[in-house]
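Feature request disguised as a bug: please show the residue count (73) next to ATP-dependent protease in the output. Example input:
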Amino acid sequence: MTLSCEAGGSPVSYSWFKDNEIVKAGGRVSLSSDNQTLTLDPGSRNDSGSSTCLATNAASSQNDTVRLDVLCN
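Example output, currently without the count:
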């Protein structure tokens, strides 16, 4: 399962959160070098919940949240 985040402006830094806790790479979780893409492989029921991308640049920050419902492994 892959989630991507895109924002205008330059430079932009990206952070990912699951249920309001920062997501870090490791195990099934990988992040692209710029943190713009989050990959969960394999996806599992434990991935269900709110996933948020926070995009920040010198002028402002913006976030977008999606609700994931993983029904099977």
